[in-house]
Structure formats: structure tokens, C-alpha cells
């Protein structure tokens, strides 16, 4: 029975990947054409953006052999808050703070998932590198940040980089122990790095200077991050093609 379930899950993954790629392409295309003042594309963006994140949620939810029930629950909660943030940030109203709070809660859930059963960190280098990056990013963005946004942005960046530190620490500790779960932990690390890249591009485009094809770079790196984090739920996940 277990073998049959694993086979079915493996067979369904390419279809789920194809559907996710198609909806992501629709969301990005709709965003790019809407920003170019083309009519009728905004609805495509509004439909495909939350649908893409929902499909990634489905990937994590349908995992047959999860690392643990606890890990999957926190990852699902994180993707769920990300979906909520997607909706807040795509609406025409200025709901940036609501979106920021949603993604902050998402990262808090990811931190809880990555921290399960392991120390917060295994060494100083992860924290030092992330702290240096955060300081540099704030130094670049600070002159362009409106005063009411500075506090929320600092808090969000601290939580985002804590998520990355915890993902790195977990992968290092599992590798040192020779644990087979080090393979899916590496997927989580790559996903965390891509999340930082996506948010950095978004912050640059929103606060510093317009980024050419911003929707393409921000959304593609964001969904790649979520996809890898979702795949890290499975004990069988490896760094190999889907």
C-alpha cells in the first residue's frame, strides 16, 4: 500500500509542476502587460497569482512521506500565510503593511519548521553573513524608506534573515550527523536563499529604483523558493530534476 502511494505521488508531481509553471507564467505575463497599460491582463494576474501559490501548497499537503507531521504543518502554514500576502499585495488598495505582516508570519512558521528538534544555530558564520547582508540592504534602502515604514521593514528583514539562518543551521547540523534528511534540508536552504533574493528585488523595485521586468524576477524567484521549501517536506526529496 505504501509503495502504491509513493508511486502515485511521484507520477502526479510532473503534472503539478506543469500546472504551477503555467499559472506562474500567466501571473507574470498578466503583471508585465498590466504594467505596460495593456487592457484585460490584470484579471489574468489576479487569478493566476494566488492559484500558483495554492498549487505549491497542494504539493506540500499531498506529500506521502513527510519528514514529520509537525514539519509539514508549519510549512503548510507558512505557504498559507504567503498566499494571504499574495492577495494583499496584488490588490489595488495600498495594503503593503498587511502583506508584510502576512509574510512575516509565513517566515515565523518556516523558522518553527526548520528549528524542530535542533539548536537555533550551529556556528556564528551563518548569523554573521546574514547580519552583514541585512545591514547592507538597510543602508541601501534607508534613504528611500518613508519614516512609518522603517520600523516594519527592519522587523521583517530580521525575521526573514532569521529564517535563512535557521535553514542553514539545520542543513549543516544534519550533514554533520550524516542524516539522510540533509538532502531535503538543502532544498529548504536554496528556497530560503531565493526568498531573500526575491524580497530584495521587490524592495529595490518598490523603494529604490524601478527594476526592468520586475514582476518576472520577483515572482519567478519567489515561487521557486516556495516550491523548494514545499519539496523539502518529503523524505525522498533530492537535488535532482522534478
From TrEMBL:
One MF term in the entry's GO annotations: hydrolase activity
Keywords: Membrane, Transmembrane, Transmembrane helix
Similarity annotation: Belongs to the TMEM86 family.
Name under which the protein is recorded: Lysoplasmalogenase
Parts of the chain that traverse the membrane: 15-37, 43-61, 73-91, 97-118, 125-142, 154-172, 184-204, 210-230
The keyword Ribosomal protein appears for this protein: no
Pfam family, one: YhhN
Annotated localization: Membrane
Amino acid at each position: 500500500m505504501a509503495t502504491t502511494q509513493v508511486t502515485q505521488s511521484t507520477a502526479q508531481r510532473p503534472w503539478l509542476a506543469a500546472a504551477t509553471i503555467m499559472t506562474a507564467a500567466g501571473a507574470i505575463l498578466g503583471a508585465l502587460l498590466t504594467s505596460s497599460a495593456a487592457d484585460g491582463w490584470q484579471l489574468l494576474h489576479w487569478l493566476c497569482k494566488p492559484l500558483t501559490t495554492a498549487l505549491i501548497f497542494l504539493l506540500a499537503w499531498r506529500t506521502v512521506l513527510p519528514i514529520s507531521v509537525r514539519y509539514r504543518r508549519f510549512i503548510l502554514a507558512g505557504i498559507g500565510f504567503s498566499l494571504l500576502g499574495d492577495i494583499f499585495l496584488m490588490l489595488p488598495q495600498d495594503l503593503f503593511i498587511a502583506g508584510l505582516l502576512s509574510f512575516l508570519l509565513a517566515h515565523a512558521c518556516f523558522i518553527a519548521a526548520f528549528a524542530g528538534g535542533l539548536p537555533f544555530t550551529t556556528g556564528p558564520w551563518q548569523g554573521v553573513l546574514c547580519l552583514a547582508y541585512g545591514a547592507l540592504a538597510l543602508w541601501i534602502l534607508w534613504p528611500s524608506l518613508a519614516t512609518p515604514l522603517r520600523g516594519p521593514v527592519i522587523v521583517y528583514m530580521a525575521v526573514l534573515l532569521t529564517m535563512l539562518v535557521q535553514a542553514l543551521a539545520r542543513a549543516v547540523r544534519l550533514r554533520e550527523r550524516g542524516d539522510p534528511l540533509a538532502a531535503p534540508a538543502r532544498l529548504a536552504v536554496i528556497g530560503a536563499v531565493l526568498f531573500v533574493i526575491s524580497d530584495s528585488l521587490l524592495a529595490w523595485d518598490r523603494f529604490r529604483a524601478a527594476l526592468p521586468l520586475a514582476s518576472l524576477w520577483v515572482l519567478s524567484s519567489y515561487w521557486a523558493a516556495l516550491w523548494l521549501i514545499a519539496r523539502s517536506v518529503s523524505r525522498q526529496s533530492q537535488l535532482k530534476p522534478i
